[in-house]
Amino acid sequence: MDPIVEVVAALLGFIGWVMVGVALPNRYWKTSTVDGNVITTSTLYENLWMSCATDSTGVHNCREFPSLFALSGYIQASRALMIASIVMGTFGLVTSLIGMQCCKAGGDNYVLKGRITAVGGVFFILQGLCTMISVSWYAFNITQDFFNPLYAGTKYEIGEGLYIGWCSGTLAICAGVCLLFACKSNSDDNKSAYPYQPSRGTIYSGAASRRDVASTYDKNAYV
């Protein structure tokens, strides 16, 4: 495997893992579209954990969701997927670092290190998929309520937390794909044929010819 590809993929995976940690506690997963009049201007915004409001004076008031079972199903699923994404990213970072050629933790068995790196790539892909499913599902419900003319509640728009999540998922998937393709190309190179070497029969025939020459020389020497 190319060490440069390993370093670039590990760097992309690390950035994606950090961005998941930034997106998860971000308060602006969705924001309100109507602020009210000039005097009582307020902005509503929510994430997976709480609902907040800010007024024209800059005072923020946040209220955590009281019960897990009282939440909508997509919020519960998004929570679980985001937490699973962080766990997968952690495993991906550890396995990819151990499998890198510049790391001595995995020994000098490069075949084993390549397989470990491939496992890290799989973890990165799973991290990206979990993140993408979580934020896309959350965004789908936002747009569904926004464009529903019969929806009487507060209509929200997509917040910055979702964009961070999409970027994180993209980076994680790119890192995993790079690791997998690099390991596959390395295994294909190892399967290439060895250079041609003469067979044992040829060696024996050469040895026999040398014996014939030696015997002839000995006979001529006594004449």
From TrEMBL:
The keyword Lipid biosynthesis does not apply. It holds the Pfam family PMP22_Claudin. One of its GO terms (molecular function) is structural molecule activity. GO terms for biological process: digestive tract morphogenesis; tube formation. The chain crosses the membrane at residues 7-24, 80-98, 118-140, 163-183. It is found in: Cell junction, Tight junction; Cell membrane. InterPro entries: Claudin, Claudin_CS, PMP22/EMP/MP20/Claudin. Keywords: Cell junction, Cell membrane, Membrane, Tight junction, Transmembrane, Transmembrane helix. GO terms for cellular component: bicellular tight junction; plasma membrane. Claudins function as major constituents of the tight junction complexes that regulate the permeability of epithelia. PANTHER family: CLAUDIN. Belongs to the claudin family. This is Claudin. The lineage of its organism: Eukaryota, Metazoa, Chordata, Craniata, Vertebrata.
